[in-house]
Amino acid sequence: MAFGRSRRDKRPPVEPVTLKILVAGGFGVGKTTAVGAVSEIRPLRTEERLTEAGRPVDDLEGVESKTTTTVAMDFGRITLREDLVLYLFGTPGQDRFWFLWDELAQGALGAVVLADTRRLEDCFAAVDYFERRRIPFTVAVNVFEGSERFPPPTVRDALDLDPEVPVLVCDARDRSSVRDVLVAVVENALERAAREREPVAT
Hints:
This protein is an alpha/beta fold. The chain has helices at about 30-40, 100-105, 125-130, 150-160, 175-195, and strands at about 15-25, 45-50, 70-80, 85-90, 110-115, 135-140, 165-170.
């Protein structure tokens, strides 16, 4: 025995479960920021600079300082536990890139819909997308400086969400805040799967 431990004491390495989570929402809501804040690897980004040609179709009201946009996806990874790893896929926000959503959504356990209370209507499309495809999702209200704060029940009513959809407040720049949202996404998706497996009472 060397260093007080025998070979028989060594446990085999844990093979983690990997889950796919989407990070969605409107243009400029903080998807790229959120993935970058929480990813333990250097995130993959497919950003391009905004151009004058895109101004007629890219609504910059409320995000006038934004200079780039995601044209395909963001990708990151976070280990929640030794046996649980999340792969994060940030979706593009503009209408003209929505054809990519179906590819990104394949195999997803659940999704985060980031919301900006200054442009709340921008996340309607994402909410509708996940509702129609029965993909569990959690709404996370991203806190922007200077924006009015609303309690989660008010946001829930404004988005006309079902009672089982979690609504949280987060800061997309803060790792622990985004991590809490991702934990809520996983818990919500697993709880929904458990409910759907329950036998129907007759």
